[in-house]
Amino acid sequence: MTATTIDAPRIDRVARDPRRGILLMALGIALFSLLNAAVKWQSETFPINQIIFFRNAFALIPVLVMARRMGGLPALRTARPREQILLALVWTGVLVLMFGAYHIMPLADATAISFLQPIVVTLLSAPLAGDRVGWRDWGAVLVGIAGVLLMVDPTGRGSVFGAALAFSGMVLSAFSMIMQRRLSRTETSISVVVWTLGISAATMVPTLPFSWVMPSGAQLAGLIAMGLASGAFQYLTVRSLYHASAAAVSAVSYTKMIWAIVIGFVAFGDVPTPAVLLGTLVILASTVLAYGSGRRDAAAPEETR
């Protein structure tokens, strides 16, 4: 799950502090970036289905602790189990595609492509949620796609196939965000997280015998730690949105690119090419364009919209 998919919880009566919310989100993004690096490293040894199983199964531990603080079992009840199951299956597909991209591509490349997601969500909101999409939104999409094309290098690092995986995962993730928005009308945020993690882990169980790689003690500890850290990321995200609005913490998400470049260089020796850096700037510009369009639409009088 992503930082933009979880609404602010009523965990306790601690006074809200926007600065604390931004700090918690920054810590969450740093942890999320380390998780992506862990996935890339683990994928050198373990199949993706095994990584997804450990990631989601052990993420449930801290998430269930959080659920207890948010109301216990009543908070996990759902009136729309079919949609919860469908969302979990879609999210599992997102993980398969994105983890495949992390395995093939440098982290910075895959991370840059993920910045297109808010724009794709905006476009999908028109047919799926009835939202208005203007020419500026379409322009932002075209600029963003141009940024992705700048990054693709057919002669190096398997970038074409990796970019296709990352782009497909980003689009599917945008679909999942629309589904989560629909569910949020009747379901609690914690129920969506728990259902998604639980079902996603369960769907991997039947596939494990066909590709299971027996981990050593140290490797098993690493897989479990990855799952626990994923749950901790969810907790930090929810807590950050308790203290601050999604708009207030949204800018922090762009620090993912900094972390991806640093971790990719230190851990894997990946040096971003000028094309990747230029493409990243273009993608960020497209996101700023879409954000500006949203602000203008929000400020426009109703009769002119």
Automatic annotation (TrEMBL):
<dbReference type="Pfam" id="PF00892">
    <property type="entry name" value="EamA"/>
</dbReference>
<keyword id="KW-0472">Membrane</keyword>
<dbReference type="GO" id="GO:0016020">
    <property type="term" value="C:membrane"/>
</dbReference>
<keyword id="KW-0812">Transmembrane</keyword>
<protein>
    <recommendedName>
        <fullName>EamA domain-containing protein</fullName>
    </recommendedName>
</protein>
<comment type="similarity">
    <text>Belongs to the drug/metabolite transporter (DMT) superfamily. 10 TMS drug/metabolite exporter (DME) (TC 2.A.7.3) family.</text>
</comment>
<feature type="domain" description="EamA">
    <location>
        <begin position="20"/>
        <end position="152"/>
    </location>
</feature>
<feature type="transmembrane region" description="Helical">
    <location>
        <begin position="274"/>
        <end position="292"/>
    </location>
</feature>
<feature type="transmembrane region" description="Helical">
    <location>
        <begin position="248"/>
        <end position="268"/>
    </location>
</feature>
<feature type="transmembrane region" description="Helical">
    <location>
        <begin position="21"/>
        <end position="39"/>
    </location>
</feature>
<feature type="transmembrane region" description="Helical">
    <location>
        <begin position="218"/>
        <end position="236"/>
    </location>
</feature>
<keyword id="KW-1133">Transmembrane helix</keyword>
<feature type="transmembrane region" description="Helical">
    <location>
        <begin position="190"/>
        <end position="212"/>
    </location>
</feature>
<feature type="transmembrane region" description="Helical">
    <location>
        <begin position="85"/>
        <end position="104"/>
    </location>
</feature>
<feature type="domain" description="EamA">
    <location>
        <begin position="161"/>
        <end position="290"/>
    </location>
</feature>
<feature type="transmembrane region" description="Helical">
    <location>
        <begin position="158"/>
        <end position="178"/>
    </location>
</feature>
<dbReference type="InterPro" id="IPR037185">
    <property type="entry name" value="EmrE-like"/>
</dbReference>
<feature type="transmembrane region" description="Helical">
    <location>
        <begin position="45"/>
        <end position="65"/>
    </location>
</feature>
<dbReference type="InterPro" id="IPR000620">
    <property type="entry name" value="EamA_dom"/>
</dbReference>
